[in-house]
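Title: Comparing notes on inverse folding

I've been comparing how different people in this forum approach sequence design from structure. To keep things fair, I'm posting one structure and asking everyone to reply with a full sequence. Here's the target:
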């Protein structure tokens, strides 16, 4: 299964935060160790050849300029049954988060969403047998950066995990179906998140 990893590096955070190159290197090895999986790297955006060959795309970078062409490529990929993984800052749209939410279920915005670097408790709310969270403890203590509130309709996604901020539970992990395409998104990922690595290893 061809899996391009899409990333971009911007030196706008502290050591180990949004460290896209280190993430890409670590996750390339992790994903490539699964039987039948071939992994390729992408810088900023997958090439047309990667879109044509891939069955799954993994995005971990803050795209400041979502374009109509990029949305069209993503739409065509999902329409043919492709899978998409969206991690942390890849959920952000600077201008039109509603357009991104149409593709990934929920999206965040630099002004309309809040964020905080903080210890948090990730509450797993998915069914015990869900393939993504199966085997994880019901509560996981992390140091990360939640975003809330998200733009989009939570009734259209399956929330897998939440955290409490300002006295309210907010979605941190979710899945979304767009036609034949499937999306998994995680707000967790500001710093290296062992919970995501363990989930990948558990669901092989």
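Reply #1:
Here's my take.
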């Amino acid at each position: 299964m061809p899996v391009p990893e899409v990333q971009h590096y911007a030196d706008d955070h502290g050591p180990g935060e949004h460290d896209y190159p280190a993430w890409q290197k670590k996750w390339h090895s992790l994903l490539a160790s699964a039987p039948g999986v071939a992994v390729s790297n992408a810088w900023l955006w997958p090439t047309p050849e990667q879109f044509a060959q891939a069955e799954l795309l993994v995005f971990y970078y803050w795209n400041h300029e979502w374009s109509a062409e990029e949305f069209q490529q993503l739409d065509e990929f999902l329409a043919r049954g492709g899978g998409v993984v969206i991690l942390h800052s890849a959920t952000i749209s600077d201008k039109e988060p509603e357009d991104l939410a149409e593709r990934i279920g929920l999206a965040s915005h630099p002004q309309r969403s809040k964020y905080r670097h903080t210890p948090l408790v990730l509450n797993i709310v998915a069914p015990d047998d869900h393939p993504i969270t199966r085997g994880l403890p019901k509560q996981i203590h992390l140091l990360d950066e939640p975003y809330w509130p998200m733009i989009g309709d939570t009734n259209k996604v399956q929330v897998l995990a939440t955290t409490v901020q300002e006295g309210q539970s907010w979605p941190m992990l979710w899945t979304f179906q767009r036609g034949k395409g499937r999306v998994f998104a995680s707000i967790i990922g500001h710093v290296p998140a062992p919970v995501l690595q363990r989930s990948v290893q558990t669901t092989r």
